[in-house]
Write a structure and sequence with these properties.
By secondary structure, this protein is an alpha+beta fold. The protein folds into two domains: about 5-60; about 120-235, no CATH class. About 45% of the residues lie in helices and about 15% in strands. The protein is built from six helices and five strands. The protein has a five-stranded antiparallel β-sheet with strand order 1-2-3-5-4, covered by helices on one side. β4 and β5 (about 225-230) form a beta hairpin. α1 packs parallel to α3 (about 35-60). The longest helix is centred in the middle third of the chain and has 45 residues, at about 65-110. The protein is elongated.
Length: about 240
């Protein structure tokens, strides 16, 4: 073992409580026994450590020092938790104020329902059923162009409905004098295969009188109008163009 290695080991492992592998300890002892410089350095460092240790142990520890130190730590910890709590409460208050402001704005800007407004909208929908249908279909990128002319004067409601679990535009038609109703689902070929449906409305009525027919779109081959209806036949929901 050379002097550099011996002094390094003596510095870090030559003090009380330190651990050194047995073979390294034996090599260090052998070197110190034959090297006056290294052994003198080690004796000096150990003597210094002993004097410093005695001096520190001779210092009187003030009474209650441990308690004061623990109280100080507890106080700092409490202040930290209080700061975090205040920050959380402040954030929660900001969130509540924001939500409250949004709700208040919504309430302040909410349309006022009056009899006049409701009646005016209902009258407009009756007078311009074509526009109502165009708005509903237009929101889905569609146009109303069935090969057979469905009679929109029979339209009761236009909106979105569920067809076998999928949301599609649907028109509700009512032929009051003939006691007949129809749901017209506007379907895309990418969503449904309608090739097995009858095109003339000659399906066998169900127990509740429901029949089914499909009307192709006059402009798009990927769009069809699936009609589920009651009554004597599909013609009850078509425009009468005999006079024309």
């Amino acid at each position: 073992m050379d002097c550099n290695t011996a002094r390094l080991l003596a510095t870090f492992f030559g003090r009380p409580g330190s651990e050194l592998a047995p073979e390294d300890a034996a090599a260090l002892d052998a070197h110190l026994a034959t090297c006056p410089k290294c052994s003198g350095l080690v004796r000096f460092e150990r003597a210094f450590d002993d004097r410093l240790g005695r001096a520190m142990r001779a210092v009187t520890v003030p009474a209650g020092l441990k308690g004061r130190l623990l109280d100080g730590v507890a106080a700092q910890r409490g202040a930290w938790y209080r700061e975090k709590a205040y920050a959380f409460v402040g954030l929660a208050a900001c969130v509540l104020l924001t939500i409250g402001g949004v709700v208040a704005w919504q309430v302040a800007t909410a349309p006022v329902l009056t009899q006049e407004k409701l009646v005016a909208q209902a009258d407009e929908e009756v007078q311009n059923r074509t526009k109502v249908v165009a708005d509903v279909l237009g929101a889905r990128g569609l146009e109303f162009a069935p090969e057979k002319p469905l009679d929109l004067t029979l339209l009761e409601v236009a909106g979105l409905g569920r067809l076998l679990g999928r949301e599609v535009p649907v028109l509700y038609l009512l032929n009051g004098p003939k006691n007949a109703r129809a749901k017209v689902y506007v379907a895309r070929k990418s969503d449904f295969d309608w090739t097995k449906l009858p095109r003339d409305g000659s399906s066998v009525p169900s127990v509740y009188g429901h029949q089914v027919a499909v009307i192709r779109d006059a402009r798009r081959s990927d769009v069809a109008y699936v009609v589920v209806f009651t009554g004597a036949g599909l013609e009850l929901f078509l425009e009468d163009r005999s006079a024309a």
